[in-house]
Design a protein that fits this description.
Structural class: mainly beta
Number of helices: 0
Radius of gyration: 54 Å
Shape: rod-shaped
Oligomer: single chain
Helix content: under 10%
C-alpha cells in the first residue's frame, strides 16, 4: 500500500510519450483489485475520484476502449468510443435496468416551463407520467402486465383502451367532433368482425365514410349515411346474414332503415338490387308478404310467383289500373285480360276468347206505324253518345216508307230535341248521314221516337240505335 495520511499529494509531469501513472499486475490474482479508493472516516463532503480536464481533445475516462467512455464534451458512451449525446448505449445484446422496488426513469427538461416525463415500473405494470412545469404528475399511458395498453386510464380493459380524448389516425382534424372520445381515420378501416354502437356513434364525413347515429338507442331514429360517396362491402358469408338490423326496443313512428334524397338528382336509383342467380330471391318481405324472385316475377301473398305479378288475395285499386293494350292482343289462357284499342274492346279468356265492348245497341219494332205517333223508348242510366241509326220497313216494297225522328227528352220526358235530321226508312235499311248534331245524351234523359209521314201500307218498321257508354 501507499498511504498519504490524509494529506495533499500533488504530482506534476510533462510526459508526452508514455503513461504517467501505470499499474501493471502480471500475476494471476483472484478476488482483489489493482486500485481501491476507500473512505473509512466520516467526511462531510468531498469526492472519491475527481477528474479535471479542460482540453476538448482529451477524453475524461476510457474503460476497455469502448466499454465505458466519458468524452471531453461530457457525453457518456457504453459500447461506443464516440457518443454524440448525453448517454449513448450501443449493445448487440440487451440493456437491463434493475431496481429493487418501483423503479423510475426520469426525463427532466431544465428549461423553464417545459415538461418532465417519468417512466415508472410498479408490480407488473409500467406507467408513463407527465409533469408540466411544477404541476403534479399526470398519468398518460400504462402498459399492464396482461399486455393491455391504457391511454388516459390506468385500468385498461382491452388490448388498447383510450379514454378522455379524441384519437386521430392519419389526420389531425376532426370535422364533426362531439367533444369527447372521437375517432378520426384518414385512410381505410377494415373490420373483420362486428361494429356495435351504444348511442354515441361512429362519425365520418369524408369520401367513403360511414355515419352511424344513435345505434342501439331505442328512443331515437337510427340512420346510416354514406355522404354521397360509394361504399362497397364484399362478403363470402354462407352461414348467416351479412347485414342485419335488429331493434329490440318498442319504437313508435320511426323506421329501422330510411333511404332519403334531399338533393336535386337528374337520374339514379334510391335502391338497386343486382341478382343474376335465379336460385336466389332478390327481395323477400315476411316470407310471403312481398317477394321478387331471381327470375323477376313478383309475388304478393305467395313465396313462389309463377307470373310477372302473382297476387294471392284481393287487389284494391284506388284510382286506375293500366292493362296491356294493342291491336288484337294475345289472350289465350284462363285469367288473361287485355284491351283491344283498335276495336275498342275489353278482351278476356273464359273458356274461350271473349269480349266486352262499350259499344251498345237497342232495336225496336213498331207495328202499323202512323203519322204523328210518338213513342218513349228508354231512359239512360249513364251518359251515352248515339253514333248510328238504322231502320227498315215491312213489307219491303219500293212503294212503302216511314219517316222517323229520334229525339232526346229531359228526365221528365219533356222538351224533345232531335238527335239528327229525320231519316226515311224504306226497304234498303236506310241509315243516318253519319253526322249526328245532338248525339250526346245526358244520364237520366229519355230517348223517344217520333213517326212522320207513312207512305204505302207499312205493317212494321224496325229501328236500331247504336251508341257508346260514356264515363260519368
Amino acid at each position: 500500500t501507499i498511504a498519504f495520511a490524509g494529506f495533499t499529494v500533488d504530482w506534476t509531469t510533462n510526459e508526452t510519450a508514455s503513461d504517467f501513472f501505470n499499474i501493471t499486475n502480471s500475476g494471476d490474482f483472484g478476488d482483489v483489485s489493482l486500485m481501491v479508493l476507500q473512505q473509512t472516516g466520516n467526511p462531510t463532503n468531498g469526492t472519491m475520484l475527481e477528474i479535471i480536464n479542460t482540453d476538448a481533445n482529451v477524453d475524461h475516462m476510457v474503460v476497455g476502449g469502448t466499454d465505458f467512455v466519458i468524452t471531453a464534451a461530457g457525453n457518456v458512451g457504453i459500447g461506443t468510443s464516440a457518443p454524440t449525446a448525453g448517454l449513448v448505449v450501443m449493445n448487440d445484446d440487451s440493456i437491463e435496468i434493475n431496481f429493487s422496488t418501483s423503479p423510475d426513469l426520469l426525463f427532466t427538461d431544465s428549461s423553464a416551463g417545459d415538461d418532465d416525463w417519468n417512466i415508472e415500473v410498479s408490480a407488473d405494470d409500467m406507467t408513463m407520467w407527465q409533469r408540466v412545469g411544477d404541476a403534479v404528475w399526470t398519468e398518460r399511458m400504462t402498459l399492464k402486465g396482461s399486455g393491455n395498453v391504457g391511454i388516459g386510464t390506468t385500468a385498461a380493459s382491452g388490448i388498447l383502451d383510450v379514454e378522455g380524448g379524441d384519437v386521430f389516425i392519419g389526420t389531425a382534424t376532426l370535422t364533426n367532433a362531439s367533444g369527447n372520445d372521437d375517432v378520426s381515420i384518414e385512410g381505410n378501416l377494415e373490420v373483420d368482425g362486428t361494429i356495435y354502437g351504444d348511442g354515441s356513434g361512429i362519425t365520418g364525413v369524408t369520401a367513403g365514410s360511414v355515419v352511424y347515429n344513435n345505434i342501439g338507442d331505442a328512443a331515437a331514429e337510427s340512420t346510416i349515411a354514406f355522404a354521397g360517396f360509394t361504399v362497397d362491402w364484399t362478403t363470402n358469408e354462407t352461414a348467416s346474414d351479412f347485414f342485419n338490423i335488429t331493434n329490440s326496443g318498442d319504437f313508435g313512428d320511426v323506421s329501422l332503415m330510411v333511404l332519403q334524397q334531399t338533393g336535386n338528382p337528374t337520374n339514379g336509383t334510391m335502391l338497386e338490387i343486382i341478382n343474376t342467380d335465379t336460385n336466389v330471391d332478390s327481395l323477400l318481405v315476411n316470407t310471403t308478404d312481398f317477394v321478387v324472385i331471381g327470375g323477376g316475377n313478383v309475388g304478393v301473398g305467395t313465396s313462389g310467383p309463377a307470373y310477372d305479378l302473382d297476387v294471392n288475395g284481393t287487389v284494391n285499386v284506388a284510382t286506375s289500373i293500366e292493362i296491356p293494350s294493342g291491336t288484337g292482343p294475345t289472350v289465350d289462357a284462363e285469367g288473361e285480360i287485355a284491351i283491344d284499342t283498335t276495336d275498342d274492346q275489353f278482351v278476356y279468356f273464359g273458356g274461350a276468347k271473349r269480349v266486352l265492348s262499350f259499344k251498345q245497341m237497342k232495336a225496336f219494332t213498331l207495328e202499323n206505324p202512323a203519322d204523328a205517333d210518338n213513342f218513349i223508348l228508354w231512359k239512360t242510366l249513364d251518359p251515352i253518345t248515339i253514333t248510328d241509326i238504322e231502320c227498315i220497313v215491312d213489307p219491303a216494297d219500293a212503294a212503302e216508307s216511314v219517316v222517323i225522328d229520334v229525339q232526346e227528352r229531359d228526365s221528365t220526358a219533356d222538351n224533345p230535341a232531335t238527335v239528327d235530321a229525320t231519316i226515311t226508312c224504306d226497304n234498303d235499311g236506310a241509315a243516318d248521314d253519319g253526322t249526328l248534331t245532338n248525339g250526346a245524351i245526358d244520364a237520366n234523359d229519355w230517348i223517344s221516337l217520333d213517326i212522320g209521314a207513312v207512305t204505302g201500307t207499312v205493317t212494321q218498321v224496325s229501328v236500331t240505335i247504336y251508341y257508346t257508354l260514356d264515363a260519368e
